[in-house]
Design a protein that fits this description.
The structure holds 3 protein chains of 3 kinds.
Chain A: E1 2-4, E2 16-25, E3 28-38, E4 43-47, H1 54-62, E5 69-74, E6 77-78, H2 83-89, E7 90-93, H3 105-116, H4 122-131, H5 147-161, E8 165-169, H6 177-192, E9 196-200, E10 210-214
Parallel strand pairs in A: 1-10, 4-9, 4-10, 7-8, 8-9
Antiparallel strand pairs in A: 2-3, 2-5, 5-6
Chain B: H1 2-17, H2 19-40, H3 44-67, H4 72-77, H5 79-85, H6 90-119, H7 124-151, H8 158-185, H9 191-220
Helix pairs in contact in B: 1-6, 2-3, 2-6, 3-6, 3-7, 3-8, 6-7, 6-9, 7-8, 7-9, 8-9
Chain C: H1 2-11, H2 21-53, H3 67-94, H4 97-129, H5 137-158, H6 162-193, H7 209-241, H8 246-250, H9 252-255
Helix pairs in contact in C: 2-7, 3-4, 3-6, 3-7, 4-5, 4-6, 4-7, 5-6
The chains are: A alpha/beta, B mainly alpha, C mainly alpha.
Chain lengths: 215, 221, 256
Amino acid sequence: MTILNPHTPLQSTPLLEARDLTCIRGQRALFEGLSFGISSGECLHVSGENGVGKTSLLRLLSGLSRPELGEVLWDGKSIVSDSVSYRHQLLYMGHRDALKEDLTSLENLEMYAVLDNVALSQENALATLWRFGLRGREDLPVSCLSAGQKRRVLMARMITRQAKIWILDEPFNALDSNAVQILQKLIEEHIDAGGIVILTSHQALVIEGLRVLKL
Amino acid sequence: MNALLGIIHRDLLLVMRRKSEVLTALFFFVIVTSLFPLGIGADGALLRKIAPGVIWVAALLSTLLGLQRIFSADYADGTLEQMVLSPQSFVLLVAGKIVAHWLVCGLPLVILAPIIGIQFDMDAGSLKVLILALLLGTPVLSLIGSIGAALTLGVRGGSVLMSLIVLPLYIPVLIFGAGAVYANTVGLDISGHFSLLGALLILALAFVPWVSAVAVKIAIE
Amino acid sequence: MSQKNTLSNKRFMNWFRLSSPMTFYPVAGKLIPFFWVLAFLFGVAGLWVSFFVAPIDAVQGQGYRIIFIHVPTSWMSMFIYLVMAGWAGLGLVFNTRLSSMMAQALAPIGAWMAFMSLWTGAFWGKPMWGAWWVWDARLTSELILLFLYLGFIALQASIDNPRRADKAGAVLVLVGVVNVPIIYFSVKWWNTLHQGASISMTKAPAMAQTMLWGMLLMALALWMYSIAVALMRVQAIILERESHADWVRQLGEVKS
């Protein structure tokens, strides 16, 4: 685990690059002039106390909000001007579950497949859900699942989404130790396959090759 | 196109799982129209005269009631954010949600209106004009209303504020829609009213989904 | 937009430099007394023409003179809405805070003009037509314009995040600006359809030249007044929204 100074000059050609990011919330500047780069196969852990701007940074990187100054580049191109291809490769998970409570977990996955423009057969969807221990629960409305089980549905989505870059905001919330292991393994597999992960977490993480960005 | 149908399918599915919300908006429509004879008196000639206006105003108010859920449910559970981040065109997704809203809130009004019209002793010719006008007008109501719904997402007192914002914008639809029925009863030509309603519909279809998409993104920032 | 134009032409200032609240604040301060003086001068001239020069109307007697307030406030309410939309649009497209602050400053002034127009319309209507309110096309459109203003003000007041309030308000006022001609047209249509056209504020007999001059002068007075008040309001808004900035804390007014 290497501690990264937020103002370190950029490494070799990074895939995702933040340049001079400045974020203002209310009357304060949360951070200014933040620059860093992430290459394929890396996992970045954004750490810091509550309220320091971790979620704001993640939202800036995902393109949900615009920075006051600075820009985010994907593969050399601004995510604002070339947003469609960036969104194709992006999976963002925020604080809320983003599941429709009245639909079943299977229906949720299938709806996301349409939204994410990925092909997903029903067998594939079911297999993924079973992989995460939801066999027998695929046809229940999500409102009937426990918090941990809902998170497992989201893990299933991480697989079916087939995105290159994962931006996860507190993904380990509400997970039991078993599920924490599963998620960590998922992240490691994703990185090994050349993907990028950016996450925040209050827990200590055991992931190979983790970089830390302290805000 | 797939995404458009997908979103419409999803929203309709969600409505089917929670029918009570939709039905309350429709009951509201029926109840509001019934209040007028109770307030004004059951004089047949008077009721026949005010019927188009009453039905149209009730349609406006019921559409507003239904609009409260168009984005707010998705905003609350985080799925709206996911739609904004989707590689699909967000404008298309918003258009799909508006279509679903109209199918659930607008179309039933068109079907219910003749029944209310009969309660107000409207004749067959007027009923036909009313149905046609509502058919053209209610999509415009769903469209324009979606802008108000998007602007007031997550805001305190959002539903009342949305009504304040949207109702002035509804006035042209009300005037042309109710005016068409009234003109028909006094024997005037109604083609002008319908061309205007049609023009409003085309204008709204062309621009509003994009405006609402912009408004949603502002709310999500 | 015109007030900034004359200033920048005279002093060759860079347009975009003025778009920072910090540089605009003192500029506004210098302009305000200038516009108050203009408003006073035009106002005096206008009132003099209205009361002493314009002839007594054959039908309506002395009471018609309220038209010299009613018509100019009506014009101003519509003009301010357009200007507001322009500023808000600029703020949305170029992401400049000051443009949005201008729009925010103008809204209550425009609403007040619309309200005055309706109020004076009622005062004119009562002695002339026997009713405090008539549903003619102009008054009804004015009423709807007031609703549009109130909607904008309410929306901005309800959203806590000022940047979101700016952008949401801008979308609303731009949608409103597109709708204003449609609404006006539909109300005129409604009016003729329901045969209310016999009583109309706009159907005054052909106006004497002097009457037109009186209205023009009053309109100019109101315009200068609006600019003065808008500049004062925008100063207050700047202080409020930039209160965390160092230059605000250094200001004389704030320090005391």
